[in-house]
Design goal:
Elements: H1 5-17, E1 62-66, H2 67-71, E2 90-91, E3 101-102, E4 111-114, E5 117-118, E6 137-143, E7 158-163, E8 171-176, E9 180-190, E10 193-202, H3 204-210, E11 216-219, E12 224-244, E13 247-264, E14 276-295, E15 298-315, E16 319-338, E17 341-360, E18 379-398, E19 404-415, E20 421-435, E21 438-449, E22 468-481, E23 485-503, E24 507-526, E25 530-546, E26 549-554, E27 561-572, E28 575-584, E29 588-589, E30 592-598, E31 606-611, E32 617-618, E33 622-634, E34 640-648, E35 656-661, E36 667-672, E37 677-685
Parallel strand pairs: 4-7
Antiparallel strand pairs: 1-6, 2-3, 4-5, 6-7, 8-9, 8-37, 9-10, 10-12, 11-12, 12-13, 13-14, 14-15, 15-16, 16-17, 17-18, 18-19, 19-20, 20-21, 21-22, 22-23, 23-24, 24-25, 25-26, 25-27, 27-28, 28-33, 29-32, 30-31, 33-34, 34-37, 35-36
């Protein structure tokens, strides 16, 4: 809802100041799921009770990434969740914002969770790292579309992370990279109880302070300085207890904090009110108590949780936004096998409290092509919003024979927030196996989402908005080749309805439409020493932007062509070499086609831009080649030292992420992404 509005406002505005906009990526990077499918493999094996029981192998847009494979991809920098960027159909704009688009859906249209435990956010500011410790992750489950009835309040896709529950091994690790350091401990607290604790902190700000550069220049091109260099920390905790065979209790917590303070004079003439200091802080703590049960043909997964999130922003000498988001709820899912049917059913309920204290404008959205803080209306709001949301779902997985698998169900929900009321979404899928290892898959359904919170508030938005909706239709074909190789093609289509878009009278109106379609073609091969993966993804997407204009314009997050090759070679028991080569189309932008004089303030007339068709032009195409070599060194008593060295953007290719304009809106330069960058990671395991 509104929980990240404040910090997102600051990040989006900082991106504007630095020349970036809101908002690598390819292929169907599918790796094998957890080795054990049995509940409680050993006392502290991965419970894995409910994670994929409602899934059908071969359905479109369902991806699984194992942590070991994800960590070895050049560019993830020791963070397996960053490997999401290399899933087929997941794209980014390569502008440092960290925004991810799942099959051309906006980031806020998708949901992120830790086995249904809600998270305040997944990536720290600017997408540098995720908020979950690597050792707390068993695997990453991505559904780019066509997901089943168990997931709600999303019209784009779902990222649901499987926790790695502690084993009581009395082991741990310490890690150091160029930008941050982290640790993890897996401790036995008794015969049936174990604790995992992991944390991470960036330390560039500490190093700068140590050498007397606690204040410095963040960007010379945009005349931006910092008084608090961007920094963050996070903490992950998993406490597990098996109190009887088939019954597992866990207490799970994830917390994170981000801060930045900058001062920019970039807009002193172009947007004079948007000049000065931005001080932004955000953080969250998400705590859940979970029970997982396995009783023969019947299994359960229940989590009760509380998400407490804060965002505090002050900027430009007098404007500010403070909000606290408190979400308390419960999610339950049951699975029972009856003959050739597997019935999956569940419910979830949430109560949300949101105190909002602000004196600020609406945020600078990526699809708003002419945002101007000086003339934007400012809003003074001091209110507390409270509402409840609930949903139930049921679906049947039916396997009439060895060739067919069917999944069909419905999700229904309601909220007392304003006038949104009831909804019901039918969803279905089917897979036909026509030869060993060869399948045809299909999925379709309707998906419903509550509009972004500030669009529903009085004054700032329109309380009478409807739900946003989308229809998904996806196909998938996969065939084996050689020994250990597969080839797949996956066409997709999404149709958007009732999107909350700009309206001059009511701020927003539920009348926006749009579509996205394309396909993902991929091939992969694996044996004991080699892994190759190559893919090409094509996407086309348009959306309506304005309530008084029925025309569809190119979606600001459309990346039509993405091609990628990942390869790895384990050339010795302790050595491995990997590479990533990636190409994609450049970021869409709206061209400046002229200027005019804005004399609304006679004391300070300004040159203002006239824009052409929204997002009708593109920046130069993007290319990177990342190379990584890694070694594992065994030390006495079973300890290990692991190190890896990467060359990122090894060809030093010039990748442009935005255009810089002077006060007369003439091009004065470009924002460039990282040049050739060496990166070293060292991990000690004990």
């Amino acid at each position: 809802m509104v929980r990240r509005y404040g910090f997102f406002w600051a990040i989006l505005f900082i991106c504007k100041l630095l020349g970036a906009d809101e908002g690598s990526d390819l292929g169907t990077l599918e790796v094998r799921p957890l080795d054990s499918e049995e509940p409680f493999a050993g006392i502290f094996g991965d419970p894995n009770l409910m994670r994929f029981e409602q899934d059908v192998a071969g359905l479109p847009a369902s991806r699984v990434l194992g942590v070991k494979e994800a960590m070895f991809i050049p560019g993830v920098q020791g963070d397996p969740i960053k490997a999401i960027k290399f899933i087929g159909g997941v794209s980014s704009l390569n502008d440092g914002s960290g925004e991810l688009f799942l099959y051309a859906s906006k980031p806020e249209e998708s949901s992120f969770s830790l086995n249904r435990l809600p998270l305040g956010y997944v990536f720290h500011g600017f997408g540098i790292h995720s908020v979950i410790a690597p050792e707390a992750i068993a695997q990453i489950n991505a559904y780019l579309g066509g997901f089943d009835a168990a997931y709600g309040n999303a019209i784009g896709g779902v990222i649901d992370i499987t926790p790695a529950y502690p084993k009581g091994s009395d082991s741990g690790y310490m890690h150091m990279g160029i930008y941050n350091a982290s640790f993890g401990l897996d401790l036995g607290l008794g015969e049936d109880t174990a604790l995992y604790l992991g944390g991470r902190r960036s330390y560039f700000d500490l190093l700068l302070e140590a050498v007397g550069k606690g204040t410095g220049t963040l960007s010379e091109d945009t005349n931006t300085t910092y008084t608090q260099f961007p920094n963050y920390y996070d903490l992950s905790m998993l406490l597990g207890h098996q109190y009887s065979p088939g019954n597992y209790l866990s207490l799970e917590a994830v917390g994170a904090f981000d801060a930045i303070t900058i001062n920019s004079q970039e807009n002193a003439i172009k947007d004079p009110e948007a000049t000065g200091e931005i001080d932004a802080k955000q953080g969250f703590v998400s705590v859940g108590a979970r029970h997982q049960g396995s009783y023969g043909r019947y299994r359960t997964n229940t989590v009760a949780y509380n998400l407490y999130s804060t965002s505090r922003v002050s900027l430009f000498g007098g404007y500010y936004l403070d909000n606290v988001f408190n979400r308390t709820g419960i999610n339950h899912q049951s699975t029972v096998d009856i003959g050739t049917h597997r019935i999956v059913a569940g419910a979830e309920a949430d109560h949300i409290a949101l105190p909002l204290d602000m004196n600020i404008s609406k945020p600078p959205r990526a699809d708003d092509v002419d945002y101007d803080f000086t003339t934007a209306q400012k809003y003074r709001i001091d209110e507390t919003y409270r509402f409840t949301m609930g949903a139930v779902f049921v679906e049947d997985i039916y396997r009439p024979d060895d060739r067919w698998s069917l999944r069909y169900g419905v999700r229904a929900g309601a909220t007392d927030y304003n006038r949104l009321g009831l909804y019901a979404d039918p969803r279905m899928g089917a897979v036909y196996t026509f030869a060993p290892g060869a399948t045809l898959g299909f999925s379709a359904g309707r998906y419903t989402r509550v509009p972004t919170g500030y669009k529903l508030t009085r004054d700032l938005g329109n309380p009478d908005l409807d739900y946003e909706r989308a229809w998904h239709l996806l196909l998938r074909g996969e065939v084996p080749f050689a020994q250990g190789g597969t080839l797949s093609i996956e066409p997709f289509y999404k149709r958007y309805e009732a999107l909350a878009i700009d309206n001059n009278v009511t701020q927003f109106e539920s009348e926006g439409e749009g579509y996205a379609y394309g396909f993902d073609l991929s091939a992969k091969y694996r044996d004991d020493q080699w892994y190759f993966f190559g893919a090409y993804t094509y996407t086309r997407s348009e959306r309506q932007l304005y309530g008084n204009d029925d025309e569809l314009y190119r979606f600001y997050g459309e990346v039509p062509h993405v091609a990628q090759l990942i390869g790895s070679w384990r050339f010795a028991p302790e050595w491995a070499l990997s590479l990533l080569a990636k190409y994609n189309s450049g970021k869409p932008y709206t061209p400046v086609v002229g200027t005019y004089i804005d004399a609304s303030d006679p004391a300070q007339p300004r040159v203002r831009p006239l824009y052409g068709e929204p997002f009708s032009e593109r920046l130069d195409d993007y290319f990177t080649l990342n190379i990584k070599i890694a070694q594992q060194v065994k030390i006495a008593n079973g300890d290990r030292l692991e190190w890896s060295f990467e060359l990122m953007n090894a060809t030093n290719h010039r990748n442009i992420s935005d255009i810089l304009y002077d006060e007369n809106y003439k091009i004065k330069g470009y924002v460039e992404q990282l040049p050739l960058l060496p990166w070293l990671d060292i991990t000690y395991r004990f």
